[in-house]
């Protein structure tokens, strides 16, 4: 029987993987300029980390985790998201003790969620994310949103929008919670069984329900904005003032409830507005999580962050018909005349690579004509020809494929000649 790839996973094949590298590189450069450093945490963690750090009532923890016992019967989970691990590491490595706060961290790597696979939803997907932990300041929230947006913008996306909301502080959420319970309780039997459990545990989640999203009581539910304390409202206003001044457009959506339990104050999503995009339009989600570090045993350290999947980012690029400027040029193809020169063609290929050129040769013992065909197909800039007779005199031929001119040179001048020609090509 042929073994197939697990459902909800993909092979990222040549032709596609270059896009991934490109996107990851652009993101890394953006983070570098914003003084974010990469953190690489394990792919699996103690299950408890996510129960505590993502929340017992979330979809992620209740139904989407890949959890297994290791050989010593310890419960482990493949990470479904990155923030909990980053916060754990922040505590574990005492980053709160550093002079410079917030600690600015980014990550990029696979996440695992047992979901029903569809376009934009996989069981293994790659998230790029950032966290700024240690400071509560509206400037940090605004910078975080601008940072996430800039990744999309630098890749050329235009049809995106930023949606923001505030979930307020503990007092605001508690008051809102009571109002939600009062609102839903009389008709809770009309909702799915998940929502019935959510009512007492975490009624906010009802607003996020994928089954009952069309129930009329969802649209008329009390809005969190009406329950914000003066302090929370002031913080939200400050965040918006920062966004206004840095000219980041946004729309407000008081019904936007993010999937994770630990959010407070600012929450945001970036959505694709492109017509070609599928049903799932959220590209990126983020927000503030002031209680998380404390929840994980560290000192109270407010944080804010975002996560986006590369899958949805690439889908958005495709929907806007943006092609990434991925370089795939071949500088040098080394043609060998006769099999006897094979070691020398290999030597010249390696020497070109060592000098920084992309270089290739034939491995199929093709005739000279066939080798030239390959060089042509691969769009080689230069073809180097090694023949037995020339070789006896220490000579090789370099052909410039753009001009068609060729030159016999001493093998000892090989790299210098390539460099000179490459340089001439650039300045012409
Ligand atoms: P959704 O409502 O689409 O399930 P979520 O609230 O679960 O999203 P987050 O946990 O906030 O999403 O993750 C942040 C981002 O990660 C999402 O905006 C999306 O780009 C991406 N993402 C989440 N789940 C998946 C998945 N299963 N496959 C691909 N990308 C995903
Ligand atoms: Mg989800």
TrEMBL record:
<dbReference type="Pfam" id="PF03129">
    <property type="entry name" value="HGTP_anticodon"/>
</dbReference>
<keyword id="KW-0436">Ligase</keyword>
<dbReference type="InterPro" id="IPR015807">
    <property type="entry name" value="His-tRNA-ligase"/>
</dbReference>
<feature type="binding site">
    <location>
        <begin position="262"/>
        <end position="263"/>
    </location>
    <ligand>
        <name>L-histidine</name>
    </ligand>
</feature>
<dbReference type="GO" id="GO:0006427">
    <property type="term" value="P:histidyl-tRNA aminoacylation"/>
</dbReference>
<dbReference type="InterPro" id="IPR045864">
    <property type="entry name" value="aa-tRNA-synth_II/BPL/LPL"/>
</dbReference>
<dbReference type="InterPro" id="IPR004154">
    <property type="entry name" value="Anticodon-bd"/>
</dbReference>
<dbReference type="InterPro" id="IPR033656">
    <property type="entry name" value="HisRS_anticodon"/>
</dbReference>
<dbReference type="GO" id="GO:0016740">
    <property type="term" value="F:transferase activity"/>
</dbReference>
<dbReference type="GO" id="GO:0004821">
    <property type="term" value="F:histidine-tRNA ligase activity"/>
</dbReference>
<dbReference type="Pfam" id="PF13393">
    <property type="entry name" value="tRNA-synt_His"/>
</dbReference>
<feature type="domain" description="Aminoacyl-transfer RNA synthetases class-II family profile">
    <location>
        <begin position="1"/>
        <end position="325"/>
    </location>
</feature>
<feature type="binding site">
    <location>
        <position position="131"/>
    </location>
    <ligand>
        <name>L-histidine</name>
    </ligand>
</feature>
<dbReference type="InterPro" id="IPR004516">
    <property type="entry name" value="HisRS/HisZ"/>
</dbReference>
<dbReference type="GO" id="GO:0005524">
    <property type="term" value="F:ATP binding"/>
</dbReference>
<dbReference type="GO" id="GO:0005737">
    <property type="term" value="C:cytoplasm"/>
</dbReference>
<dbReference type="InterPro" id="IPR036621">
    <property type="entry name" value="Anticodon-bd_dom_sf"/>
</dbReference>
<feature type="binding site">
    <location>
        <position position="258"/>
    </location>
    <ligand>
        <name>L-histidine</name>
    </ligand>
</feature>
<keyword id="KW-0030">Aminoacyl-tRNA synthetase</keyword>
<dbReference type="InterPro" id="IPR041715">
    <property type="entry name" value="HisRS-like_core"/>
</dbReference>
<keyword id="KW-0067">ATP-binding</keyword>
<keyword id="KW-0648">Protein biosynthesis</keyword>
<dbReference type="GO" id="GO:0140096">
    <property type="term" value="F:catalytic activity, acting on a protein"/>
</dbReference>
<feature type="binding site">
    <location>
        <begin position="81"/>
        <end position="83"/>
    </location>
    <ligand>
        <name>L-histidine</name>
    </ligand>
</feature>
<keyword id="KW-0963">Cytoplasm</keyword>
<protein>
    <recommendedName>
        <fullName>Histidine--tRNA ligase</fullName>
        <ecNumber>6.1.1.21</ecNumber>
    </recommendedName>
</protein>
<keyword id="KW-0547">Nucleotide-binding</keyword>
<dbReference type="InterPro" id="IPR006195">
    <property type="entry name" value="aa-tRNA-synth_II"/>
</dbReference>
<comment type="similarity">
    <text>Belongs to the class-II aminoacyl-tRNA synthetase family.</text>
</comment>
<feature type="binding site">
    <location>
        <position position="127"/>
    </location>
    <ligand>
        <name>L-histidine</name>
    </ligand>
</feature>
<feature type="binding site">
    <location>
        <position position="113"/>
    </location>
    <ligand>
        <name>L-histidine</name>
    </ligand>
</feature>
<comment type="subunit">
    <text>Homodimer.</text>
</comment>
């Amino acid at each position: 029987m042929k073994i197939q790839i697990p459902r909800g996973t993909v092979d990222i094949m040549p032709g596609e993987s270059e896009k991934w590298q490109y996107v990851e590189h652009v993101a890394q450069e953006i983070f570098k300029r914003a003084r974010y450093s990469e953190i690489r945490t394990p792919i699996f963690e103690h299950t408890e980390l996510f129960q505590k750090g993502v929340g017992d009532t979330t979809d992620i923890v209740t139904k989407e985790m890949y959890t297994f016992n290791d050989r010593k019967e310890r419960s482990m989970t493949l990470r479904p998201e990155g923030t909990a691990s980053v916060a754990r590491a922040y505590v574990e490595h005492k980053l709160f003790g550093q002079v410079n706060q917030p600690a600015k961290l980014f990550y990029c790597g696979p996440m695992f969620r047992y979901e029903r696979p569809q376009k934009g939803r996989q069981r293994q997907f790659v998230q790029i994310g950032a966290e700024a932990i240690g400071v509560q300041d509206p400037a940090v929230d605004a910078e975080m949103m601008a940072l996430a947006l800039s990744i999309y913008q630098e890749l050329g996306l235009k049809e995106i929008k930023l949606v923001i909301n505030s979930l307020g502080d503990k007092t605001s959420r508690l008051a809102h919670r009571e109002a939600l319970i009062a609102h839903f309780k009389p008709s809770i039997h009309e909702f799915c069984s998940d929502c019935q459990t959510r009512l007492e545990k975490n009624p906010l989640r009802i607003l996020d329900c994928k089954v009952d999203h069309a129930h009329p009581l969802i649209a008329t539910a009390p809005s969190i904005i009406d329950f914000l304390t003066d302090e929370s409202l002031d913080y939200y206003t400050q965040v918006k003032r920062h966004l206004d001044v840095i000219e980041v457009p946004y729309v407000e959506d008081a019904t936007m409830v993010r999937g994770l339990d630990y959010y407070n104050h600012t929450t945001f999503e970036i959505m694709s507005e492109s017509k070609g995009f599928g049903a799932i339009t959220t590209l990126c989600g983020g927000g503030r999580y002031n209680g998380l570090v404390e929840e994980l045993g560290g000192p109270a350290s407010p944080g804010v962050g975002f996560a986006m999947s590369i899958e949805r980012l690439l889908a958005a690029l495709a929907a806007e018909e943006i092609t990434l400027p991925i370089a795939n040029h071949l500088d040098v193809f080394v043609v060998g005349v006769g099999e006897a020169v094979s070691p020398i063609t290999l030597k010249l290929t390696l020497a070109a690579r060592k000098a920084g050129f992309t270089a290739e040769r034939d491995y199929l013992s093709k005739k000279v004509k066939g080798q030239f065909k390959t060089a042509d197909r691969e769009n080689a800039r230069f073809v180097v020809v090694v023949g037995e007779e020339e070789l006896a005199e220490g000579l090789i031929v370099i052909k410039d494929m753009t001009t068609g001119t060729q030159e016999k040179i001493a093998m000892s001048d090989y790299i210098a000649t390539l460099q000179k020609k490459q340089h001439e090509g650039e300045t012409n």
